[in-house]
Amino acid sequence: MGDKKKFDMYLYLKWLTIGFGVSGIGVTIAILLYLFTR
Fold it and tell me: What gap in Å lies between CA 9 and CA 24, rounded to an integer?
């Protein structure tokens, strides 16, 4: 039971990190496009 919970938390953190990485790249690209197309 305890190991299952720990594993779920690990997966959750992994997906959270991936999500932040992807959105971070998206935000960076959006800012660059905004600056260059002004």
Answer: 22
